[in-house]
Amino acid sequence: MAEIRLQDSGGPHASRSSRAELDEVPCLTAGLPTPDSVQSQKEAHIASLERELREGVAQLAEQHRRKTDELHAKANQQRSQLSLALEKMVKEQEALLDKQHQTQSQQLQEAAQRQLTELNQQAELLVQAWRAQEGHIPPAQIRGLPRESLKVPSGGSMRVAWSACAAGQGGQGGSMAVLVAPPRAQTSLGGLAREQSMTSRSPSHATALLPVHSAWTAPVSGGVLQAEQHALLAMTPPAGRPAGQ
């Protein structure tokens, strides 16, 4: 900082010299902004900063909105793709289920048709056996035959065998096997020299009739009735049920 020294020499020349020196001393505030200028510049900078802040916040908000929209769009696209894939998978599984259903239905119908064919064949055999034996055993002789009941356990089987001697003079030996299953009819058996079989379908008795002296009556809770050395005479419904059912 410049030091100012004032000297009084007592003469007019000295006064003029001092004034000249005072005029030559530089101003300390020269080149500095005034307080008003500083305040004005500060306010301008504050306004600029606020404007830049607002613009930056707006840009960030726009960037956030754009990225959020892109994320949602991508999620919707993936959701559509997943939905299509899921729908395709469901349709494929439905096709497999339909094919399986058709196969099982066809198998069931074929099995039912086979059973119906077997039933028709068995009924035809019964009719033929009845017609073949109708004139060989008089009804009075059949009614006079003794009967013996044999119980068949549910789920089990039995076989009854007899010789020609046990059948009496002119009789015919044979055997009868009963396998338990759901029954529906009462079956009478009698003496043709060949093997026949049928399925009983309701609680009944399977009766084997020998030509002369004896008969076997087997109560059946279900099953396939087979006869060896004799044939089926007739199929009659259980007690209390009309014929033909």
Low-pLDDT ranges: 1-9, 140-245
Mean pLDDT: 65
| Helix/sheet category | alpha+beta
Number of helices: 3
Strand-residue proportion = 15-25%
Q: Within the largest sheet, what's the order of strands?
A: 1-7-6-4-9
- Share of helix, binned: 40-55%
Distance between the termini: 139 Å
Order of helices and strands: HHHEEEEEEEEE
Characterize the largest beta sheet: strand count, sense, and whether it forms a barrel.
5 strands, mixed
- The number of domains is 2
| Total beta strand runs | 9
Gyration radius from CA atoms, angstroms: 61 Å
Shape: rod-shaped
How would you describe this structure in keywords?
four-stranded antiparallel sheet; rod-shaped; disordered C terminus; 245 residues; five-stranded mixed sheet; alpha+beta; 3 helices
Summarize the entry for a quick read.
The protein has 245 residues and is α+β, with helices and mostly antiparallel strands. The chain is built from 3 helices and 9 strands. The protein has helices spanning 12-24, 35-133, 139-143; strands spanning 147-149, 157-162, 174-179, 186-190, 196-200, 204-209, 215-220, 223-228, 231-236.
Describe the secondary structure blueprint for this structure.
Elements lengths: L11 H13 L10 H99 L5 H5 L3 E3 L7 E6 L11 E6 L6 E5 L5 E5 L3 E6 L5 E6 L2 E6 L2 E6 L9
Parallel strand pairs: 1-7, 4-6
Antiparallel strand pairs: 2-3, 3-8, 4-9, 5-8, 6-7
Structure, described:
The protein has 245 residues and is of the alpha+beta class. The chain has 2 domains: 39-133; 138-236, no CATH class. It is 48% helix and 20% strand. It has helices spanning 12-24, 35-133, 139-143; strands spanning 147-149, 157-162, 174-179, 186-190, 196-200, 204-209, 215-220, 223-228, 231-236. The strands form 2 sheets. Strands 1-7-6-4-9 form a 5-stranded mixed sheet. 16% of the residues are buried. The model is unreliable at 1-9 and 140-245 (pLDDT under 50).
